[in-house]
Amino acid sequence: MAKKGGFGGGMPGGMNMNNLLKQAQKMQADMQKQQEELETKEVEASVGGGAVVVKMNGKRELTDITIKEEVVDPDDVEMLQDLILSAVNQAIRDIDEMQKSQMSKLTGGMNLPF
Known about the structure:
The protein has 2 helices and 3 strands.
């Protein structure tokens, strides 16, 4: 007679719900720790040959902006604005990539939403 499935019988492959729950809780705790570590990291993005440099932390907060004096042209404010936008957007992309890379290491490549 074949065994009937159910909650008390365990899962295929010898894994039971308690082990699965413990693994999920550990992964959640590891992910939380990883996120906290990422928030303390900083990226630097430079555009225009170093004309504008921004620094951003893992919380996506700008921590520093450096603008070379020679790019401050009152007759071409739009260029400076474009450089700043470009640098900030690059820093955001760098933070995203850093987070994806770290989470991928933690999840073993599983494509999980964050």
